[in-house]
Write a structure and sequence with these properties.
Chain lengths: 430, 430
């Protein structure tokens, strides 16, 4: 079965992930050839700085002209590990136009413009794979797209950003505040010098968009995803969560609405019960919990980032793309036939944990409870703590629409007896 | 893209899983057609008792002549959910010969004779898929075969039998003995009237054989798998595990040897640390932990049995097989190129927890320690408890070959001061 002609593969980008991909292609060449049915030939590696030392990367393959590389016309697969929107979008579409399948780890591009890329791939009869774009090494896109292709997914609940999970886990295990935990994450290399993309939820929102589109067979872009970061999570929130038997986790949540006619996608910190499988996900690990009608509750767990784990996902896609090239076929592509619209955050129905600073005098609870009732938000439990004329009131609600909760909070702020709303956090996974 | 001709699918068996498969094919017809690119037409359902009432199953499709059904010659895919070796093997090979791909949930057959079935499928240019054969709804075979196709798996450690996990979990949470926990499992429908296949490890051994073959790109049959059941696990073992910060779990363990030249596969009860992700798998849930060189530590978790979860896995395979039929191609099949041999249990290297009943007099520990040293089995910790002239000695070893441990235990039994070996249990997952 072994075909003599090798499969020509080009690499765009050779940073942490690209170097690891190159290393595996080189050192595991025999295994990859046996699994594909033909050897891989590295045809070129596009980099910005060709003179940088890259151990194990053949220097003669380096080029700064990525466009010329993807235009060669003899490539079977292009692996893109540069990241960002442009020039990558143009490079990928040019690769398609020249007959190459593409394996990408680019969550930002897929979340912004996946639909048009998929259409281009179909137009040119090639594959577009991107397992590495969500949750690093964890097989997730292929299981959702293929293993669950005969099932109906109703909810995806995931810890898809290792940096924020590390920070929240540190806050939980040490009692540290946000800044202190962020400093530790930075020192250990879990957070970048500018942590905005992680801590403000942009990274998780891109992944949520990709997961929602695949899970519900529709199209969701990052602009459709409601996004809140973790910068305002306090040690008090974490302690309050513990009192409820919960942990605070940064979650990406994609849900089908109760009537099945729309979907929602959001990322925000939330409390989840300690008994939930996601609660045991510590440090920088990722995990994604999937609820499907027939399958029930599934969870996928593993390292969500890093050179080698991301390379593992890229290589899996590369083997698939190469096999398809050999068989002159393509794999399962985009499935967006449901065309389900994405509802706004106000339509999301969930539970809330609200912490209020209130005057410590009689009648405050009655006033607060009246405001909740006026907005049809039903209260599950209330905890009152008072000292020195000041008090805090922690209210946990039953399930209510996000819009109703927002309106409730606006009204609460107008009460003379409410001195401030210390925190609002959703309660998920019950 | 929608082709007019429907894909003809026949079902062999219509019990708990088959009824659920039929229900989904019927009620989710539009979704399945959109995902496949053509509608599914149920061409026939072979059953033993056609007069049994099966809600939602079209009576005119039922036949008792399974062989005639698979010989029709116009079938695209045959779904086999009968189980057992014969007549199923003959039915499946006949289906291949008549051009049909096969989706099977049959772990016993795949573990006994997967290689020849795969060869037959290749010979006739059709697919053989069996995601449902291992760990029910959990996507596992496709992730191992495809997502990790560019990685090197070194170890698979799984809870793949829900019945035994339920029993051990009950023993742990209630302090019950084995018989009492088994009775509860039977009453709740988690154990069959004859629980032998589950509690003696035959079911888990079949799954271990399948997983080992796929993970290491070689061939492993159920006869290669070392098998010990849970019938001798006592409440004392569970309590002793807890003292070490461990739980007792029934594990399927597939490992590549340190030199990479052979593999081992085994199922037996073992102690694992409470901090291990598998420790949080309660009740009848399944989970499989995979260690790969680039990916690191992955875990897949979900319901391991039941009609609907198993049907979810069958339907995922059915969609894949139908897509391939439409594209006139086949998916990734067997990969057994490494031809790694399976080493015997004696070559397995792991840690041991040994509980001895000994005479409560001076010098016993020295005698026992000498026996361990003579067999080159290094002791990690010893715990001594004595009362009324009798004592127990709990020894936990460092890593040692299984053969050395067996020889040690034989020698210990010959000591006058050792009244009995109360239990031997391996310690895994560290």
């Amino acid at each position: 079965m072994m075909r003599t002609r090798p499969l020509k593969v080009a690499l765009l980008g050779c940073g942490v992930v690209g170097s690891e991909v190159t290393r595996i292609i080189t050192t595991q060449a025999d295994d990859l050839a046996a699994r594909i049915g033909a050897p891989i030939e590295l045809a070129g590696i596009a980099v910005r700085r060709p003179n940088r030392v890259r151990e194990g990367v053949p220097a003669d393959l380096l080029t700064t002209d990525a466009m010329a590389l993807v235009k060669r016309g003899d490539l079977d697969v292009v692996v893109e590990v540069i990241g960002g929107i442009e020039p990558v979008r143009t490079l990928i579409t040019t690769a398609f136009e020249h007959g190459a399948s593409v394996v990408s780890a680019n969550k930002a591009l897929l979340a912004a413009d996946g639909a048009s890329l998929h259409a281009k791939a179909v137009e040119h009869g090639v594959d577009l794979y991107y397992e590495a774009a969500v949750a690093g090494a964890i097989p997730l896109i292929r299981p959702l797209r293929e293993s669950l292709a005969g099932d109906k997914v109703n909810r995806v609940l995931g810890i898809v950003n290792g940096t924020t999970n590390f920070i929240l886990d540190k806050m939980d295990s040490t009692g540290a505040g946000y800044s202190e935990a962020l400093d530790e994450a930075t020192a250990l290399g879990y957070a970048e010098a500018d942590p905005t993309a992680d801590v403000e939820g942009f990274d998780a929102a891109a992944k949520a968009a990709i997961l929602a589109g695949i899970a519900f067979h529709t199209r969701v872009t990052i602009d459709d995803v409601h996004r809140e970061g973790i910068t305002e999570v306090t040690a008090a929130d974490i302690a309050s969560a513990r009192k409820m038997g919960c942990l605070v986790k940064m979650l990406a949540i994609c849900e089908r609405s109760a009537d099945g006619r729309s979907v929602t996608a959001r990322v925000h910190p939330a409390m989840i019960p300690l008994s939930h499988p996601l609660a045991s996900v510590r440090e920088a690990y990722n995990a994604v919990f999937v609820e499907a009608e027939a399958a029930g509750r599934l969870m996928f767990y593993g390292p969500g980032a890093g050179g080698a784990p991301t390379a593992s996902a890229v290589l899996g896609d590369l083997v698939a793309a190469c096999r398809n090239k050999l068989a002159a076929t393509t794999g399962a592509g985009e499935s967006a036939y449901t065309q389900l619209p994405v509802s706004p955050m106000g339509d999301v129905v969930t539970r809330y944990h609200i912490s209020l600073d209130v005057a410590d005098k009689p009648g405050v609870l009655a006033q607060v409870a009246t405001v909740f009732a006026e907005h049809d938000v039903s209260i599950d439990t209330v905890r009152q703590q008072g000292k020195d004329g000041e008090a805090s009131l922690v209210v946990v609600t039953h399930r209510a629409p996000d819009a109703a909760l927002s309106a409730t909070v606006s009204s609460l702020r107008k009460l003379d007896t409410v001195r401030g709303v210390a925190s609002i956090m959703r309660v998920e996974g019950e």
